[in-house]
Design goal:
Strand content: under 5%
Shape: rod-shaped
Distance between the termini: 109 Å
Strand order of the largest sheet: 1-2
Oligomer: single chain
Order of helices and strands: EEHHHHHHHH
Structural class: mainly alpha
Number of domains: 3
Radius of gyration: 72 Å
């Protein structure tokens, strides 16, 4: 603020116009109010944009929740029922189709999980970019407004103090001029009084000297008459002396009257001169009184201007505090919105953790079902092998019975049948204890030809190197062994322990 328009040129009367950098204060304040309103409009637009972004993000989160719920619904699968004895049912075409569908569903679920993770990552990046850009824009606007306010206040205060110092220097010069004028007036009055006093002293001294001269001359004359004349002369001269004394008394009375009249005239003149001097002094003091009145009026106007400026400054400070409060409230609301979004996100994450736990449970069940399916496949292979062995044993037994029934000597015929080239080796059926080791080993061949080929391929085969024990075996023992093996096979096929 400057004091360019406080004192008019060629006049000491103050004016009511204040200037800031060459422009009137009213225009500067109007520009500042327009700037504040524009900043408020920008803040309102930013707040609306933030609310729209929050609404869009909430809509995106709702869609994301719907996708997660659809994923959770996809995670709910129906497992196959299990029998009462703890074993799964026999694998069928429907089970194979269900297994393929489960695998396809697993691949689809992984693809959906990857899509959901990609969608959440893109959404998070968009949210961070949107909120960070808005926060950075708010920070730049706040820095610009603070810098503008600081520079404006500093420049206003500097100009105001410069013009105020110039005004104080001008007042000091005016006071010096007034003191110099009063000194000149007082010196002129002292010179006039001194001139009148000197003239008065000279007149009084001249009259006193004239009286003294007259007295001396009268005394000399009387003394001369006394010494020259005689008694008559002395009487005549005494009479003359008496007349002279009376004349001198009259002259003295006249002189005293003249002196009194002169003194009275001098007093009147002095009073007139003093009144004129007082009038001149009052006339000289009239500009001083006017200057004092102007100083009082200027002080009153300055106080009024300072009071109005202080009131305007208080309003400006109040508006600035309100604006700063709004600016401080915007990050708080932004943080509250971020906290709400974080709570919603972590609640969804917490729900997704339960979904993942259900998925892990489903995976565990699938693994268990897979293990049970593998066990069922092993049992199915064992059952097929047992049935094949049973069929082979039945065929061998039928041939043995036919041979024994047709031949006359059953023992020799049976021995010849066992030693013949057409004898087929009976495959062994693994027991329950050997089942675990058979699952780890490679799958055995189910056809008797392959088993025969394996036995004939080995250099230590039973057919090529028959022992005495095979020759001494009886038909009853062989039938007993076949019966025991058949019972074991039936038990394993029926699932009995």
């Amino acid at each position: 603020m400057s004091a360019d328009g406080v004192f008019l040129e060629g006049s000491s009367a103050p004016s009511l116009e204040l200037h800031v950098g060459g422009a009137p204060l009213a225009e500067v304040l109007a520009d500042m109010m327009r700037l504040i309103r524009s900043q408020q409009k920008e803040l309102e637009s930013l707040r609306r944009d933030a609310e729209e972004g929050i609404y869009r993000n909430e809509c995106g989160l709702k869609k994301h929740d719907g996708v997660l719920e659809s994923f959770a619904e996809d995670l709910r699968i129906h497992v196959r029922p299990i029998n009462y004895n703890g074993q799964p049912p026999m694998p069928t075409m429907a089970d194979a189709v269900a297994n393929v569908e489960c695998r396809l569903w697993r691949v689809e679920r992984e693809r959906k999980f990857h899509a959901a993770a990609r969608l959440s990552e893109v959404t998070r990046k968009k949210l961070m970019a949107a909120f960070y850009s808005q926060w950075w824009l708010l920070r730049k606007l706040r820095a610009k407004s603070r810098f503008l306010l600081t520079e404006t206040k500093r420049e206003i205060w500097r100009r105001y103090m410069r013009k105020w110092s110039r005004s104080l220097a001008f007042r000091r010069r005016q006071a010096a001029w007034r003191r110099h004028l009063m000194g000149l007036t007082a010196a002129h009055g002292r010179r006039i009084m001194m001139s009148y006093w000197c003239k008065w002293v000279q007149v009084v001294a001249f009259k006193s000297q004239a009286r003294a001269n007259r007295r001396i001359s009268a005394y000399n004359i009387s003394d001369t008459m006394l010494h020259i004349t005689c008694r008559g002369i002395a009487r005549r001269y005494l009479y003359a002396w008496a007349q002279f004394v009376a004349a001198a008394r009259d002259a003295r009375c006249r002189a005293q009257g003249a002196l009194w009249l002169e003194q009275k005239t001098a007093r009147i003149l002095a009073r007139r001169y003093f009144e004129r001097w007082l009038d001149a002094h009052r006339w000289c003091r009239l500009p001083l009184m006017r200057l004092k009145a102007l100083d009082a009026l200027r002080a009153k106007l300055s106080r009024g201007l300072a009071r109005s400026f202080l009131r305007a400054w208080q309003d400006f400070v109040r508006n600035r505090c309100e604006r700063r409060r709004v600016l401080r409230l915007i990050p708080h609301l932004h943080h509250a919105n971020l906290a709400a979004l974080a709570r919603r996100y972590f609640s969804r994450l917490y729900a997704f953790r339960f979904v993942r736990r259900d998925a892990r449970v489903v995976e565990t069940l699938e693994q268990r079902l897979k293990t049970l399916s593998e066990r069922a496949d092993g049992l199915q292979r064992q059952l097929d092998m047992g049935l094949h062995t049973l069929a082979h044993t039945n065929s061998v037994l039928a041939r043995v019975v036919d041979t024994v029934m047709v031949a006359g000597e059953p023992r020799a015929a049976l021995q010849a049948f066992l030693e013949g080239d057409t004898m087929m080796s009976v495959p062994t059926v693994p027991s329950v204890e050997e089942k675990g080791s058979q699952q780890d080993a490679s799958a055995p061949s189910l056809s008797p030809n392959s088993r025969r080929h394996e036995e004939t391929a080995s250099p230590t085969g039973r057919e090529r190197q028959p022992t005495d024990e095979h020759r001494r075996v009886s038909a009853s023992e062989m039938l007993q062994n076949l019966r025991v093996r058949l019972e074991k096979t039936y038990k394993m096929a029926g699932g009995e322990p």
